Amino acid sequence: MSPPETEFITLYHSSSDDSESTSLGTSLTPQRIGFVGFGTIASAIATGLATQQSVPISYLAVSRRSEKRSSALQKSFPDLVSIHDDNQQVVDTADIIFLCVLPEQTSSVLQKLKFDAHRHTLVSLVSTSTIEDLCRDAQLPPERVFKMICLPAVARCNGICLLLTPTQKDPPILTELCEALGGCVQARDAQQMSALMVTTCLMGSFYGVLRNNREFLVRHGLDRDQASFLVGRLYDSMVQDAVQVQKDPNGFDQLIAEQTPGGLNDQGLRNLEALGALDAYDQVQTAILSRILGESDGSLPFESR
Amino acid sequence: MSPPETEFITLYHSSSDDSESTSLGTSLTPQRIGFVGFGTIASAIATGLATQQSVPISYLAVSRRSEKRSSALQKSFPDLVSIHDDNQQVVDTADIIFLCVLPEQTSSVLQKLKFDAHRHTLVSLVSTSTIEDLCRDAQLPPERVFKMICLPAVARCNGICLLLTPTQKDPPILTELCEALGGCVQARDAQQMSALMVTTCLMGSFYGVLRNNREFLVRHGLDRDQASFLVGRLYDSMVQDAVQVQKDPNGFDQLIAEQTPGGLNDQGLRNLEALGALDAYDQVQTAILSRILGESDGSLPFESR
């Protein structure tokens, strides 16, 4: 399929920070989006973008590789998806380009591509890339280049996108695309971005706590399937209360304050603190950050920061 | 309002364990439900029952006290709710009776009431009550008496009900009412019930971890509201993955196994374990159980069980 016209796009990216005109524009302008490299996370983003209903998408250009993933996406969304063997075709036919290649390929892939600084927005999903290197290799100005990290759940529009936006807060279209994928948190510099990445690496720890809570019940005579069901349902119920206050900077504190003073819940938290479990979380997060920053291999011991 | 006929009900409770006939019966038989005592948790259960769509409810009889809560319920569901000054009226006009009084009132309240062993089901929400005491005080046979514990989220049909069912698994109607309120986990004896209660007392601990994770981001330069939003969204996303496998006895283990070996998530969990945080959870849960069983005041230290 041939890509639709692009004239409205440029108008968009040159618009002011006026959020009213931005959202108006979004409702009018179908987006043309390309993927250079098409691995797991690219496939999740593309699936989410094709599925979401908030931002109109007219065209999704994807690299053939990985062939299995690109074919599956085209099969699911035949009117939207176009597969290209040549990365330059992806770039030429789209306006927002998601870069999803391996860290060691990033520089050489970008250096071979020709971008239009008036038209293209480059979004790198390569965790090790820096905005400076991306600008240099793609020959794009900093206001056209972003870094993004997201969870696989973006495929169900229930992920969360971390967006490094050093030059502008709420970049038009991109913020709205991230919101449509499940939510957007913006970092203003690389240090903030690294800290945000730490939070997204707490999956193993969380599932470990769920397993621990389940096994306590099993040790006390419950069937493992019943125990698993209760733990899952309980955390689901608790998280829904947390989600209701997540936009309040002190929301979690309020949920803690709602526990009866001296009651079982309150005492449980105080015991957990006294036993050093929350200090352990601090050390775990500090170790992850250190590894992300390349300062260590993440092994203990660590002083909390 | 006058209560509807009750003839189908008895038929129900004398039916066999055949789940097909049970669900068929449920779809035909509107339930008449009463509340003796009407505090926070009674109000939550009544609100959930009036809201849910799975089991037809024809009538909700509630104690006037607490007046504010009973009036609010009647205002919300005027066609369903009848307020009574006399607890015996509640019992006389309903078939399933939720007992929601203070622990020290339980015996004297029950001893004053007259139940019909062929018609009534008694469900005690009093955490300290035993099935034996309830049977003696209400003059009801054990197969008519249950204990239940539930979270306030039952009001939104998103709670979880713990049901002590020593004499029969899946008691008809009651199981379905609990399912309609968000989910049902059954204990076969008082010890299992106590262990299940422990899990529902992990709210303080969980919100403490959320606060900890948020504060890590704040220390690294994120705004507290952004940090809160990310933590809330992340746990929501993780819990949804957990909920998808919660009926699998090894589902949480699979989620852990999905983390890249040696990756940031995997290392985070191993660090958390090495720092004793999961042992701390064991001790916290053991302390809560000890307090529930009246063996201690729940203070540390505790050997994990």
From TrEMBL, chains A, B:
This is Pyrroline-5-carboxylate reductase catalytic N-terminal domain-containing protein. GO terms for biological process: L-proline biosynthetic process. Keywords: NADP. NADPH binds at residue 87. Residues 32-126 form the Pyrroline-5-carboxylate reductase catalytic N-terminal domain. GO terms for molecular function: pyrroline-5-carboxylate reductase activity. Belongs to the pyrroline-5-carboxylate reductase family. Pfam families: F420_oxidored. The lineage of its organism: Eukaryota, Sar, Stramenopiles, Ochrophyta, Bacillariophyta. PANTHER family: PYRROLINE-5-CARBOXYLATE REDUCTASE, PYRROLINE-5-CARBOXYLATE REDUCTASE CATALYTIC N-TERMINAL DOMAIN-CONTAINING PROTEIN. It comes from the Eukaryota.
